[in-house]
Write a structure and sequence with these properties.
Elements: H1 2-36, H2 38-45, H3 51-80, H4 83-92, H5 98-131, H6 139-170, H7 173-199, E1 206-208, H8 213-225, E2 232-235, E3 246-249, E4 256-260, H9 261-266, H10 269-284, H11 287-310, H12 314-317, H13 326-343, H14 345-367, H15 371-383, H16 392-398, H17 404-414
Parallel strand pairs: 2-4
Antiparallel strand pairs: 1-2, 3-4
Helix pairs in contact: 1-3, 1-13, 1-16, 3-5, 4-5, 5-6, 5-13, 6-7, 7-11, 8-10, 10-14, 10-15, 11-13, 14-16, 14-17, 15-17
Length: about 425
């Protein structure tokens, strides 16, 4: 047992240590590079003094690290003081079917995780975001979001966990792993339809872009990109935050592009067109399906590893768990597998990085000019107080978009432009 305990602790503590080291390196590297690249910040982000960005990065990074270590301490405490074992034994004594026990177990874990996260979310929203003038959320809206989020996520977790546990209880390892893979991938695809049409509207209002100058620009971009102008919405993000963003989601008739109202307000017409062209590239180049395929492959490996661990006796003996409580074994198996996903994140992120570069290139082709995308990226970075110079190791593990200076440089090269700024010294 000692070897297995050492492995589990090494994975959980080791990945948290790695994340901490990378986060500290990232903040220090970003601060140093911002001071060294003052001319670039002034030219592209219109920032003369980077102190606000540096302070924001320190505040958010520090808060995130404290939350990570508190969460890890509580998890290890619950495991090694016998709290988890006592809960499993209590559920085992209720006489409920194993699947029902498992659903209650995972729902309890989810609620506990959310409760632990409440003070951190409150501090992030009403202290950090308030200090840096991002917060637009009222306490009443925050509470509403919390309650609705708990209910929606709880229902989804209960359904997926129940179905997966039923497969584990019914079939041998190879069959339940295959069935579980089909279940999870199918659910992932279903969420691409359900989220934009059912879940997201529970939190925000989405308005189709109607007639007017913005609609004319939308139609022009769609026409140049080879699409019909439909399913483009603005979202009332300003109810909660002043941050700028846009995203795409879905496929088929459920696909849509969503523009934050804050983005529409801050960006000029050509810059909005550039953002739209970038988002359309994810459809045009089949990025949705490629990412879905990569995620499905990753899930297959994860479920195979979990299936192997569930077939071992030591997994249950590790914390004196009843062998018939497959849901408890599933929980411990996931604790072994999740750190491995974090360690392999750079491999997975490479696909997203390639897609973002391809989307930027497509936007330049559609617009016939690089300046709209350069302007949009510059405003997104400055308005959101993003770190334009992330440490390359941190970026490899955490970023699915290339650094802003690299994106601007590549866009300008694609557009046949040249830059003589210090941006070439930044990490690629």
């Amino acid at each position: 047992m000692l070897e297995q305990h050492a492995l589990l602790l090494g994975l959980l503590v080791g990945t948290t240590v790695l994340s901490t080291v990378l986060s500290v390196l990232n903040v220090r590297h970003g601060a140093r590079e911002m001071h060294h690249s003052a001319d670039w910040l002034g030219e592209y982000l219109d920032i003369d003094d980077p102190s606000e960005i540096i302070d924001y990065q320190r505040a958010t990074t520090g808060l995130g690290l404290v939350q990570s270590w508190v969460g890890l301490a509580l998890l290890l405490g619950a495991l090694y003081t016998g709290v988890v074992t006592d809960i499993v034994e209590f559920l085992d004594g209720t006489g409920l079917p194993p699947v029902a026990q498992g659903v209650l177990f995972f729902l309890g874990l989810f609620v506990a995780q959310q409760v632990v996260g409440i003070p951190f979310d409150l501090y992030s929203t009403f202290v950090v975001d308030e200090q840096f003038e991002f917060n637009e959320t009222s306490p009443r809206l925050w509470v509403r979001d919390l309650v609705v989020g708990l209910l929606v996520s709880g229902v989804i977790m209960a359904v997926v966990a129940g179905a997966l546990l039923a497969l584990i209880e019914t079939f041998e390892t190879a069959l339940w792993v295959t069935g579980g893979w089909v279940l999870v991938v199918g659910f992932m695809l279903f969420m691409q339809v359900l989220y934009p049409r059912v879940i997201a509207p529970l939190f925000n209002d989405f308005e189709p872009i109607e007639e007017g100058s913005l609609r004319d620009r939308v139609e022009a971009v769609f026409d140049r990109a080879g699409f019909e102008a439909e399913e483009i919405y603005t979202m009332d993000a300003s109810r909660r935050s002043s941050r700028l963003n846009a995203y795409f989601i879905g496929f088929g008739r459920a696909k849509r592009v969503v523009l934050f109202d804050t983005l529409v307000e801050k960006l000029n017409g050509p810059e909005i067109e550039g953002v739209l062209a970038h988002e359309l590239a994810h459809w045009k180049r089949n990025h949705v399906w490629k990412r879905t395929g990569a995620t499905a492959l990753q899930l297959g490996v994860v479920l195979a590893a979990v299936g192997y661990l569930l077939s071992t006796e030591w997994l249950y003996e590790l914390f004196a768990l009843p062998a018939e409580a497959s849901y408890a074994g599933l929980f411990v198996a996931v604790l072994f597998v999740l750190p491995l996903l974090e360690l392999t994140a750079p491999v997975v992120n490479k696909l997203s990085l390639a897609h973002e570069r391809e989307a930027d290139t497509f936007a330049v082709d559609v617009m016939g000019d690089g300046e709209p995308m350069v302007g949009a990226l510059s405003k997104l970075a400055s308005e959101n107080l993003a770190n334009p110079f992330p440490h390359p190791w941190y970026a490899a593990f955490n970023h699915q978009h290339p650094p802003i200076p690299e994106r601007i440089r590549l866009i300008q090269e694609k557009a046949g432009e040249t830059t003589t700024t210090g941006a070439e010294t930044t990490p690629a």
